[in-house]
Every structure is written in structure tokens, then in C-alpha cells.
Amino acid sequence: MFVRRVLACATLAVAAASGSVTARAAAYPDPPPDPTVPKNGGLYVAKGGVAEIHFAPSFTAKIKQLHAKLRYISPWYALPGGADTGFGMPVGSDRDTFTDPNRITYPGGLAITDYKGNTGAINGVWLRLAPGGFFAVPWVNGKRLEGEKYLLSFSVLEAFAKLKEHGGGFGPKGLSLYATGDLSQLIDSYAEVPAGTGATKPYVKAGEPVGVINVAWKDKANAQQAANAAQQALQSVQSGQSGQSGQSGQSGQSGQNGQAAPDGQPGTAPSHR
User: Fold this and answer.
1) Is the pTM of this model over 0.90?
2) What percentage of the chain carries pLDDT values higher than 90?
3) Do 132 and 153 meet the contact criterion of CB atoms below 8 Å apart?
4) Which helix (H) or strand (E) holds 123?
């Protein structure tokens, strides 16, 4: 019996050193909903719909290489292929809320936990057209960070170019999403990786493809009208920022420099901060 215990302990020690053991401490609980994100929607794009983010194979491979685990916060849910292949979320009248012309909020979120239990999470996100992308205020190990972070970027030109009927609705299909500098820094700030994985920081690089998003609003007429209104709002926002560019030292148009690509193919990555 003593010999068996010694051998078992030795086996575990070797496995841990090689990175094959991914025993996980109890993950931190889901953070509370962001107070600036309404739960049940307000001003909306269209009556009902769904959005799905399909991770790029390279991004799914990165999740596995890092021995990370993803879980989703309702109403977000894992796609049938598993949590590390992507997620879906309801959109439309029950969820969308325009809090201003350049901010559309959505409840729900996700948590990414490393093999030691360190956890980064968001619960409530918002989309902006200038710059194009998704924003949130993350939590790390149960503590809320200061200020919104620009987590995923997309090309607004590509978004409008890829509007089409699909999935029983209307909206952008195959819109490319990219990691930002904020996302890269966030993951590096808390994630630990087992030895032997070959992973080095930055674990996720700014500009790295994350996947594509398909959005299908069920009410085409309203969605098309909203798309036209969004283009007008974007022009208004851009004109308002044009007088500020060059003064703040940051690009006010990052995320809009990308170019559209044929359906099903990634576009040119927008600029990232």
C-alpha cells in the first residue's frame, strides 16, 4: 500500500510538471450584471433574433493550449460544438438597448478560468460603431476593474457590406472579429498556464482572429431601417470625432480601417490599440 501511494504521488508530480494535470480550484462566482446594461431591453434594432459567435479554429486551439475553461452567463449559451467553439445570445426587442446613438447594450457574458482557478469575467457588454467593436467592464478574481475595455474589434465597412438574409432573419453574416490590445493585456494579467504547453505571453495577441459573428434579426424591415439609421449615426459620430483626432494621441477610428471580404472569408484586420 505504501509503495502504491509513493508511486501515485510521483506520477502526479511528474504529470503536474509536464502540464498534463489541469486540476482547477473553485472558480469565482459570476459577477453581478453591469449596472449600465438593462436586463430586458429598451430601444431595439428589431423584434427578436439571435447572434452567434463562432470561434476561429486557431482560437479554439489557443483555449485548449492554455488549459482554459469557458462558461457562459445567461442569456448567453454555448454552441452545440462546446463552450470552446463559440456561443450564442438573443438579440432584438427583448435584449437590445440603445443607451446612446453609439452604444447598444446586451445582458449576459462569459468567464474564462485558468487551470489554477484564476478567472476573468464580464456580465453585460455593449457594441459601438466608432470604433467598431464590443466593450465591457471586466472582473478579475472577483474584483471589478476600472473603466470600460475594448475587447473585440470589427470593421464597420465589412459589417455593412455583409448585411444579408440568412438564418431566417436579416443581418451581418460572417463578420470577422479580432482580439484587441485590451483583451490581450486582460488575459495576460491573470491567466497562468501549466508548464510544458509551449505558450508564452502575450497568450492572445492584438489583431489575432477570434472568429466570426452572424446576426439574424427576425424583422427584416426594422433591421434594414435600423442599419440605415446606424450608418447615419456613424457619420454623425465620425464627424464629431474628426475635430478631436490628433489631440488625444489615440485613434478615434480604430476598428474602422478594415476592408470587407467575400462572405465566409475574414476581412482585413482593423487597427488595434
Assistant:
1) no
2) 60
3) yes
4) strand 119-129
